[in-house]
Amino acid sequence: MTEEEARAWLSENFDVSRETWDRLELFLSLLREEMSRQNLISKSSANHIWARHVVDSAQLLHLVPKQSKLKTWLDLGTGAGFPGIIAALLGDFKVHLVESRAKRIAFLQEIINQLNLQENAIVIGSRLEQIDGFPVEIISARAFAPLDKLLKLSHRFSTEKTLWLLPKGKNALRELQALPQKHRKLFHVEQSLTDPEAGILVGSGQII
């Protein structure tokens, strides 16, 4: 997917207002500026940011069932803001951005302030294992941890209604097959739009 194709895909699949386009552009501008101070995304993907990061994140919103009333979103290890900031910009969610590194916490808070996302996003500046559990309806994690560890760290946030959206690259099926059957049966693999060899683990339910 080229950068032009990525922008076209966003226009075709989301009702992106001029204001939202401007906020997306501002987000990416601030991200590029911050790259001189900290390593937020790989240099190899910086020239393909719309496809490799924006659309790669936005496609997760299409895995949320239409007419869904799911609103509370927990994004683990948000880092540069993918997918959490994109979900807050393009969807009607309250996104909790979990990030433990001080510089990235400061960056995410600045993004929220600059983009006026206070009603849609909040930064939780802590390691996940130090956060008290609370029920959420969507859990996402992009390059956060191996699947078995991810579930051990985050299961206390899940309920029987929780939707799991976990991009796992080329290892999606392998990581899924390594889970116990009681957990494996909750998930299936969706192919990524941005990489035909990559998979997204989509799950539904509570991890006990």
UniProtKB/TrEMBL annotation:
Top-level EC class as recorded in UniProt: transferase
GO molecular function: rRNA (guanine-N7-)-methyltransferase activity
Annotated protein name in UniProt: 16S rRNA (Guanine(527)-N(7))-methyltransferase
Organism whose genome encodes this protein: hydrothermal vent metagenome
PANTHER family: S-ADENOSYL-L-METHIONINE-DEPENDENT METHYLTRANSFERASES SUPERFAMILY PROTEIN
Keyword Methyltransferase among record annotations: yes
A cellular component annotation (GO) from this entry: cytosol
EC number(s) from the headed UniProt entry: 2.1.1.170
Keyword Methyltransferase included in the entry's annotation: yes
Keywords: Cytoplasm, Methyltransferase, rRNA processing, Transferase
